[in-house]
């Protein structure tokens, strides 16, 4: 059940400035061509980030292509952990290591594993915390994956609709200020007490 029924952030696109509209609308266009990942890496990355974000049904936000575009254009966060190389190489290495773990445990590449097996493999990395995983802190690999995945996911208009985010306010601005105040195009959350992490409430 939608938390914000009828809400469509793109209904406000005509009120955005041209540059902002161009950036946001490009995110719902055809996914960009893969330029950084190899075909094998793209398959692993897609399975990983879609699993991390729980993307099981349409509309599927194309996360891996957005990550690929950032890496191809060196649009990183401007820093990296001491025990890891620059983000581009860290993505290559961690995807390869995740695939190695999958083949060792289940006899198949990560992308070919069942959802339950993928969960086990991903959870094993998270459970290590700051302990070593293939020569690096597991927490640092986890941070790399989730930072890139979440940045791409929550920049997409489909997700804005899901969380009730009204998108850019420039140059329109806000008229109704204050706690629990909404603009005319915003929609009240139908399930404000629901925890999205609890499967029984989805």
Task: Give a verbal description of the structure.
The protein is an all-alpha fold and 202 residues long. The protein has 2 domains: 1-23 and 170-202, no CATH class; 29-155, no CATH class. It is built from 7 helices and 2 strands; from the N terminus they run αααααββαα. The chain has a two-stranded antiparallel ribbon. The longest helix is centred in the middle third of the chain and has 20 residues, at 87-106. The termini are close together.
Give the ordered list of helices and strands: HHHHHEEHH
Count of DSSP-assigned helices: 7
Uncertain stretches: none
Quote the distance from N terminus to C terminus.
7 Å
When the domains are counted, the total is: 2
Q: DSSP strand (E) fraction?
A: under 5%
Structural class comes to mainly alpha
Mean pLDDT: 92
Biggest beta sheet attributes: 2 strands, antiparallel
Share in helix: 40-55%
Strand order of the main beta sheet, please? 1-2
Cα-atom radius of gyration = 19 Å
Give the overall form: globular
Query: Quick one: how many beta strands?
Result: 2
Primary descriptors:
2 strands; 2 domains; mainly alpha; single chain; two-stranded antiparallel sheet; 202 residues
Detail the topology: elements first, then pairings.
Elements (H helix, E strand, L loop, with lengths): L17 H9 L12 H14 L10 H10 L14 H20 L8 H13 L4 E2 L2 E2 H16 L3 H7 L39
Antiparallel strand pairs: 1-2
Helix pairs in contact: 2-3, 3-6, 4-5
Describe the structure concisely.
44% of the residues lie in helices and 2% in strands. It is mostly helical. It has a two-stranded antiparallel ribbon.
């Amino acid at each position: 059940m939608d938390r914000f029924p009828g809400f469509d952030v793109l209904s406000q696109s005509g009120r955005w400035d041209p540059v902002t509209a161009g950036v946001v609308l490009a995110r719902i266009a055809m996914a960009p061509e893969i330029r950084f990942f190899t075909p094998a890496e793209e398959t692993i990355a897609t399975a990983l980030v879609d699993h991390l974000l729980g993307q099981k049904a349409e509309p599927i936000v194309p996360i891996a292509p957005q990550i690929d575009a950032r890496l191809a254009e060196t649009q990183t966060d401007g820093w990296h952990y001491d025990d890891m190389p620059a983000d581009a190489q860290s993505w290559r290495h961690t995807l390869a290591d995740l695939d190695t773990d999958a083949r060792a445990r289940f006899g198949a590449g990560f992308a070919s594993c069942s959802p339950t097996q993928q969960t086990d493999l991903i959870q094993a990395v998270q459970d290590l915390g700051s302990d070593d995983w293939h020569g690096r802190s597991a927490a640092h690999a986890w941070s790399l994956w989730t930072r890139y995945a979440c940045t791409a996911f929550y920049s997409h208009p489909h997700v804005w609709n899901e969380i009730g985010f009204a998108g850019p306010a420039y140059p329109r601005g806000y008229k109704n200020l204050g706690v629990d105040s909404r603009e005319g195009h915003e929609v009240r959350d139908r399930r404000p007490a629901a925890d999205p992490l609890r499967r029984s409430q989805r």
